[in-house]
């Protein structure tokens, strides 16, 4: 089990409080699909992903990006039991979707970049440290079924 300080908990809650889910989620997923084009293979049913403009304007990418962010919100609300919270998602991603677990980290990195851009100077190094710890726990929970 991960130990969270009160400062870390507060920082993570603050990040979520400042997020516009309908902007950050879609932009993060789109960035991931553009920067790491091999991740597109999991989204074959999303239609046109042929270039950055098509990805950025794709409503299915936008909708799924928002879903992903709401999924992270579930982890924030269950910080003391993230592995159990994500057990079904881990099975889904490993056994049905066959997602390479390294892609969770790539998406997390893109999410961090988008959040930093949105929050600017208010995304302090301490806040980022708490955020990175949070993402590491989420990624570990999502990757659990693979081990």
From TrEMBL:
Globin domain span: 3-147
Xref: CDD domains: Hb-beta-like
Source organism, top-level taxon: Eukaryota
Keywords: Heme, Iron, Metal-binding, Oxygen transport, Transport
SUPFAM superfamilies for the chain: Globin-like
InterPro entries named in the record: Globin, Globin-like_sf, Globin/Proto, Hemoglobin_b, Hemoglobin_oxygen_transport
Cellular component per GO, a single term: hemoglobin complex
Any GO molecular function: peroxidase activity
Similarity comment text for this entry: Belongs to the globin family.
PANTHER family (UniProt xref): HEMOGLOBIN FAMILY MEMBER, HEMOGLOBIN SUBUNIT EPSILON
Name under which the protein is recorded: Globin domain-containing protein
Organism: Synaphobranchus kaupii
């Amino acid at each position: 089990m991960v130990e969270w300080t009160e400062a870390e908990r507060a920082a993570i809650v603050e990040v979520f409080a400042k997020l516009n889910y309908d902007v950050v989620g879609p932009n993060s997923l789109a960035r991931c699909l553009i920067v790491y084009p091999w991740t597109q293979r999991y989204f074959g049913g999303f239609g046109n992903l042929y270039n950055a403009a098509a990805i950025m304007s794709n409503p299915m990418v936008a909708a799924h990006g928002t879903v992903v962010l709401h999924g992270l919100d579930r982890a924030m609300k269950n910080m003391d039991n993230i592995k159990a919270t994500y057990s079904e998602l881990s099975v889904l991603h490993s056994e049905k979707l066959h997602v390479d677990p390294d892609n969770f980290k790539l998406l997390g990195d893109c999410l961090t970049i988008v959040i930093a851009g949105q929050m600017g100077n208010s995304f302090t190094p301490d806040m980022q440290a708490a955020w990175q710890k949070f993402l590491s726990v989420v990624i570990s929970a999502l990757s659990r079924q693979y081990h």
